[in-house]
Amino acid sequence: MAFREEEIYEVINEVTSFEDINLSDIPDIDLYMDQVITLFEMKLNNLRRNKDEKIMTKTMINNYAKAKILPPVKGKKYNKEQIILLNLIYNLKQNLSLADISTLFNHISKIPQQEESNLSTVENLYQNFLEIKQSQEKVAQEQLNELVHIINEKADNFKEDEEYIKLILLVLTLINRANIEKRLAEKIIDKFF
To answer: Taxonomically, which superkingdom (predicted)?
Structure first.
């Protein structure tokens, strides 16, 4: 596979612009587990690495409940806050341990309700997260485009297999960035929670 800059930009665009589960997507009525899974599969379909990958499964949800990360369900139905927490777990589990997620979630329940807000604390936190996430995805897209430009310049030093060198440099740099951000998140959890 050759390093075709336009294809890399397409991949960057695909990764940084996808539909998320918004508060308005989550019904105000409680959902059965199968309905929750369907919601995740429909809304987060573009996050799959391949068509066989599952976004959320019954086993995953049961494991989060057993680990006491997710509050207990009532009557086999999940309320809006539990669905939000499941989406946050989905985002966090990509890089954090279940123990770290549990530590964070223990503190979410301690955040006082904002009197001026019609949203619950979890809904308010989630709405703010989505807004920050959306602005960060635009910044990330710009930074990734710049990274491709830098890699193109650095790869000029190589005479052979230049296209593969560019791809390898891109992967190494992306993983380094992800590792830095993961370590930073872990340090914040360790120091402040």
So the answer is: Bacteria
Q: Domain count of the chain?
A: 1
Which residues lie below 8 Å from residue 92, measured CB to CB, with a gap of 6+? Answer: 100, 101, 104
Q: Give the model confidence (pLDDT) of 111-163 as tens digits.
A: 877 777 778 899 999 999 999 999 998 898 899 889 998 998 888 777 777 78
pTM here?
0.86
State the residue range of the domain holding 29: 5-192
